[in-house]
Write a structure and sequence with these properties.
The complex is a heterodimer. By secondary structure, chain A is mainly alpha-helical. Chain A is 67% helix and 2% strand. Chain A has one domain (29-233): Up-down Bundle (Four Helix Bundle (Hemerythrin (Met), subunit A)). By secondary structure, chain B is an all-alpha fold. Classes of the chains: A mainly alpha, B mainly alpha.
Chain lengths: 292, 45
């Protein structure tokens, strides 16, 4: 959704800039994507809770898997994007990729939390317990902790490059952890079942409308993920822009204090450029290219 | 049977509520910060 405003924007040094255009992270493309995602969610609810039958063995609890499995898959995708963004930042110093990784990490944390919670709610009626220290569950919990660690380090009060570099090193650990999570059911004896969606023979236990619903769940969650990623990336971009403005204002204030202390007549402070710091200047040359 | 539906409904409500709440939070923060950034620095506008 986009809102128009006639207000003016405060700039460092007291200058103001007229606000133009929509004041949100939305655009025509994201609005279309959002509507598509909402329609897909509505259809998935009908399919998952109404039109599909109960499973012969799992009974009604199979309906939880229509959101649990796609959420887990998209959590892995988010981790992959975070590792890729981290690698590109450490290698090329690409701020665009670093912000992609940061945005993907937060979304991956949300999807990992969804995976853990829905898994617990599926485990209680199926296994009789909410949680066991099984290899798949434990490695997923470790993945969640790693994502929270990445986000905590990324938000530490420090220079942009310092926190981006530290967070990127943690971000590189996500893909190996995802591989451990994915392979844990084969490497160790676990209560969690092995992958059965693409299994041949007796392992291929899902078909018909139940298979369609699960696949449609993947599509729906991909739409949600894409929508969230674009908006979160733009929000991260705005956060860095505002942080750059705050730095500019602080520098201007210190300069004014210095002039006053030296006894010189305080000269009028010219409005500083909108994005003067090295950090933000670099960003403006490699700025967001997200489709609008 | 009824108790199983409790877990199913709880899972779906938590998933949709959690994702919806997070989406609203992102949009809301985006609107607030967009007002502080000049439009030339918001290339998607």
């Amino acid at each position: 959704m986009t809102t128009q405003s006639n207000a003016t924007t405060s700039r460092p040094g007291g200058a103001t800039a007229p606000e133009a255009g929509p004041t949100s992270t939305g655009s025509k493309a994201t609005r279309a994507l959002g509507i598509l995602a909402l329609a897909a969610v509505a259809l998935l609810v009908l399919l998952g809770l109404w039109w599909t039958p109960a499973d012969v063995i799992q009974n009604e609890s199979v309906r939880i898997l229509y959101v649990h499995v796609p959420a887990a898959t998209l959590a892995y995708l988010g981790c992959f994007l975070t590792s890729l963004g981290s690698l590109m930042y450490l290698w090329k110093k690409s701020r665009w990729w670093e912000l992609v990784g940061y945005a993907a990490a937060e979304i991956a944390a949300i999807f990992t939390a969804v995976t853990l919670v829905t898994g617990m709610l599926w485990g209680r009626p199926t296994w009789g317990v909410f949680w066991v220290w099984d290899a798949r569950l434990t490695s997923t919990a470790m993945l969640m902790l790693l994502l929270l660690g990445y986000l905590a380090v990324r938000r530490l009060p420090a220079d942009y490059h310092v926190r981006a570099q530290r967070a990127s090193i943690i971000g590189l650990l996500l893909v190996p952890n995802v591989i451990i999570v994915r392979q844990s059911v084969q490497w160790w004896r676990t209560l969690h079942q092995e992958a059965s969606l693409f299994a041949d023979g007796p392992g291929a236990t899902i078909e018909g409308i139940m298979l369609f619903t699960l696949v449609f769940g993947f599509v729906t969650f991909q739409l949600i993920f894409a929508w969230l990623l674009v908006h979160r990336f733009r929000l991260a971009w705005l956060e860095e822009q505002v942080a750059g403005q705050g730095l500019t204002a602080a520098i201007a204030e210190r300069r004014a204090e210095g002039r006053s202390a030296s006894g010189a007549a305080p000269a009028p402070i010219a409005p500083p450029p909108a994005v003067p710091s090295e950090l933000v200047h670099r960003a403006s040359t490699t700025g967001p290219e997200v489709a609008s | 049977m009824t108790s199983m539906w409790v877990y199913v409904i709880a899972a779906w409500v938590l998933v949709l509520g959690g994702l919806g709440g997070y989406a609203l939070s992102v949009v809301s923060r985006g609107k607030r910060l967009s007002r502080q950034v000049p439009s030339e620095d918001r290339r998607w506008s």
